[in-house]
Write a structure and sequence with these properties.
Elements: H1 2-8, H2 17-27, E1 33-36, E2 42-46, E3 55-60, E4 65-71, E5 77-82, E6 94-97, E7 102-107, H3 116-119, E8 129-131, H4 137-143, E9 149-152, E10 157-159, E11 163-166, H5 169-182, E12 190-195, H6 203-212, E13 216-225, E14 245-246, H7 257-270, E15 275-276, H8 286-290, E16 297-306, E17 313-316, H9 317-339
């Protein structure tokens, strides 16, 4: 399955090559041009010479990860996060390290050796180390290089009747949607930017947009779902199973209101369950795309995912299919509008 292969691939910010190669192989038969820019964005172009609005879809390839920043004398690896990672979710998690995919585990002082005050707080990132079984620094250095990354080992699996769990659903779910949409026939220029370095400042999206110069853009994302015990319902950013969400405002963008309203209208007419993203925290590539050159009309459609930026996230297959149907229906409406001119 496409989403399984995408989530099980590894791609930290700035090290997206494995994901990029997988995507390129999937989309080559369906596009007219493919290029990779200096930052590593993969840009796929369909119908470059066609008439009509130039539509950009964007989904980022990178995931949060852990970068190796030191090797101790006893062979343990020091690391720091790339992107927002909560150290409380890391203890005892298994990882794969570096290009050789060396297996390791994130270790900490065992509870029976902790002093009472230590048991009352979470470990800091500085107190955690990765154990790859090396007996000393020299052996570890033969296996792992500084600057390489460690990735969570979570496998894609289905849960219950309609849920799935996987790592990196933020934003491999958006990449999977973009790949499927590239397989659809459209009459206007459709350009998909599979962007890099989103998790460390939306860096790839601005560079990609300056090259594409779209008339409008849709950002495809996996976003926070806070519908878990202990969180008041009015604080749920999104709810898993209630359809894809449409952003009206977040930390870095105010999506184009007429475009947002049209997406809601399409959802209503097509019987697609959607929800509003009920939180202004966080941001997406829309923040950089919107500010490119003279400005770009932008909207964000996202699949709600519980526990993002952790070793495992959970989403609904129904929400994923709803996001696909919503964007496909919008593009069809856009095509019909152009044909009637």
């Amino acid at each position: 399955m496409l989403l399984a292969r995408l989530t099980e691939a590894n791609g930290a910010p700035g090290q997206e090559g494995e994901v990029r190669d997988l995507i390129r192989a999937e989309i080559e038969p369906h596009v007219h041009e493919i290029k990779t820019d200096a930052l590593g964005n993969l840009i796929a172009i369909k119908n470059p010479d066609a008439q009509g609005p130039k539509v950009m879809l964007a989904a980022h390839m990178d995931e949060v990860a852990l970068m190796i920043v030191g090797i101790e004398g006893n062979g343990f690896l020091k690391f720091r996060p790339i992107g927002g990672v909560d150290p409380r979710v890391l203890v005892a998690k298994s990882v794969l390290v570096g290009s050789k995919k060396i297996p390791g585990v994130i270790g900490s002082k065992p509870i029976h050796l902790q002093k009472p005050p230590e048991r009352e707080r979470a470990f800091t990132m500085q107190e955690l180390l990765i154990d790859i079984g090396a007996k000393n620094k020299e052996e570890a250095e033969r296996l792992v290089k500084l600057g390489e990354c460690a990735y969570f080992t979570t496998k894609y699996e289905e849960l219950g009747n309609s849920k799935v769990k996987a790592k990196a659903l933020d934003d491999r779910v958006g990449c999977a949607l973009a790949i499927r949409l590239l397989q659809e026939e459209v009459s206007f220029p459709l350009i998909v930017a599979f962007t890099v370095q989103e998790e460390v400042g939306l860096r790839g999206a601005g560079v990609a947009t300056y090259q594409i110069r779209p008339d409008l853009a849709l950002v495809l994302e996996g976003t926070t779902a806070s519908d878990v015990p202990g969180t008041d319902e009015h604080k749920h950013a999104t709810t898993v199973g209630e359809g894809p969400c449409i952003t009206v405002i977040d930390r870095v963008s105010i999506p184009h209101p007429p475009l947002v309203q049209e997406l809601f209208a399409v959802a209503s007419e097509e019987g697609i369950k959607v929800q509003v993203r009920r939180n202004t925290a966080g941001g997406t590539d829309a923040g950089q795309i919107q500010l490119s050159e003279e400005g770009v009309k932008v909207a964000t459609i996202a699949v709600p995912c519980r526990y993002i930026h952790s070793p495992v996230s959970v989403m609904s297959k129904n929400d994923y299919e709803g996001a696909y149907k919503l964007v496909k229906s919008y593009l069809k409406r856009l095509q019909e509008r152009e044909a009637s001119k």
